[in-house]
Design goal:
The chain is an alpha/beta fold. Helix content is 41%, strand content 13%. The C terminus is likely disordered. It binds flavin mononucleotide (FMN) and iron/sulfur cluster.
Length: 432
């Protein structure tokens, strides 16, 4: 697949972590250009590009920016969501560690567009290296007049600060994140009001994912039409980072036009591990419904995957071959959600635990014929009944196990245990 990388074009370039190196690679030209435009023109360009949020929900970035009131004297904020806690996702880490100024430039353009003078980059606690690199890049940017009281001599004032989280999945949810940023327990807020109106410290706030913001400088320099020319159609545009893990020869982060097929991604990742057959895949992180191998021809974009009953989410693609027990794999995911539920809502707190217990029972050979239906009933009771999308996310893979792979669940129950051999995933041979 011939595609010139955009977001990862600077990865590995000498000196790219410094302002000087980034400038040599053409960096900060987009910010200069944006500062010569009106904020409304910048928002319009981002809207026209069709850029959709890369954090999970796929909301159009320009439309979100447009929700922030322009005619207010309240302070406004940009919060960059660098929590990256969706299992299987590691693209934002690469962007922050390998090209931090691309992100700072995207943040600065967004702030100019919405009239914010402060950005908080909320980064997951485990990303110590990325946080250190960003903090050094920010110090350099202040020294070079990119940040501070007079951005590039324009009179625009901008401060950027890195805020380290403590490693909770729920702090990736935008309002849980805001609570944590403000120094409280990371428990999601009731919406509405949405953060664009009442966000950080009660003020209008844009929250965007790292990858979303990294696209922005390129939209400014190369234009919305160029951006729209990449991808499946006008609703699914631009370059995209896919994180491929599981049974492929070369797991990693790959940049391609949004909407390539799983078959193409597996080829890029060196093919299936040991040439085994594909059994199933998760297209968009732990929250996405698991799809069977027969769907590997689908375009991996927002709308095609939604139509197939799954989602692009954070584009964390988990490839599972014929040796995988899907009951066990789904139980691992269910256990994760049960552990990470913040516990505010009964359907989520209780439902996630019941789900993981039911799956464990089936895997261990104690399942009953009523269990598959029980899982579907729990899924219905949890969907749309809780405060944030974590409960729906927890339903995604579990429900799909029963709807897409019912035969495998039934076989576990009939045989009184797992038909597949245990797969050790710790070096000492322990399986879980
Ligand atoms: C449980 C949960 C966890 C989330 N974790 C992340 C995350 O780690 N990173 C992220 O960017 N968005 C995450 N999101 C999505 C955010 O709430 C929000 O939609 C996103 O940051 C908006 O940015 P975008 O429009 O640029 O995608 C999560 C959502 C939920 C419900
Ligand atoms: S749905 Fe779950 S994670 Fe979200 S607020 Fe309710 S209990 Fe917390």
């Amino acid at each position: 697949m011939a595609f010139e990388p955009v977001l990862t074009q600077n990865v590995g370039k000498p000196g790219i972590l410094t302002v000087a190196g980034y400038r040599d690679a053409g960096g900060y030209a987009a910010l200069r250009k944006a500062l010569g435009m009106t904020p409304a023109e910048v928002i319009e360009e981002v809207k026209k590009s069709g850029l959709r949020g890369r954090g999970g929900a796929g909301f159009p970035a320009g439309v979100k920016w447009g929700f922030v009131p322009a005619d207010t004297d309240q302070p406004k904020y940009l919060v960059c969501n660098a929590d990256e806690s969706e299992p299987g996702t590691f693209k934002d880490r690469l962007l922050m560690e390998k090209d931090p100024h691309q992100l700072l430039e995207g943040c600065a353009i967004c702030c100019w567009a919405v009239g914010a003078n402060t950005t908080y980059i909320y980064i997951r606690g485990e990303y110590t290296e990325a946080a250190d690199i960003l903090e050094e890049a920010i110090r350099d940017a202040y020294r070079e007049g990119i940040l501070g009281d007079d951005v590039l001599g324009s009179g625009f004032k901008l401060d950027i600060q890195v805020h380290r989280g403590a490693g909770a999945y729920i702090c990736g949810e935008e309002t849980g994140l805001l609570e944590s940023l403000e120094g409280r327990r990371g428990q999601p807020r009731v919406k509405p009001p949405f953060p664009a109106i009442v966000g950080a410290f009660g003020k209008p706030t844009v929250i965007n994912n790292v990858e979303t913001l990294c696209n922005v400088p390129h939209i400014l320099t190369r234009g919305a039409d160029w951006f729209r020319g990449i991808g499946t159609d006008e609703r699914n545009t631009g370059p995209k980072l896919y994180c491929i893990s599981g049974h492929v020869e070369r797991p990693g982060t790959y940049e391609v036009p949004i909407g390539v097929t799983l078959d193409e991604l597996i080829d890029l990742a060196g093919g299936m591990h040991k040439g085994r057959a594909l059994k199933a895949f998760i297209p968009g992180g732990a929250s996405a419904a698991i799809l069977p191998a027969s769907q590997s021809h689908l375009n991996m974009d927002f709308d095609s995957l939604a139509k197939a009953g799954s989602m692009l989410g954070s584009a964390a693609v988990v490839v599972m071959d014929e040796t995988t027990c899907l009951v066990r794999a789904t139980w691992r995911l269910a256990k994760f959600f049960s552990h990470e539920s913040c516990g505010q809502c009964t359907p989520c707190r209780e439902g996630t635990n019941w789900m993981q217990m039911t799956l464990k029972r089936i895997e261990d050979g104690h399942g009953s014929e009523a269990d598959a239906e029980l899982i579907l009933r729990m899924s219905r009771n949890m969907s749309g009944t809780a405060l944030c999308a974590l409960a729906d996310a927890a339903v995604g893979p579990v429900q799909s196990l029963v709807t897409n792979f019912r035969e495998e669940v039934d076989e576990h129950i009939r045989r009184g245990g797992c038909p597949l051999p245990p797969v050790p995933f710790f070096e000492n041979g322990a399986s879980h």
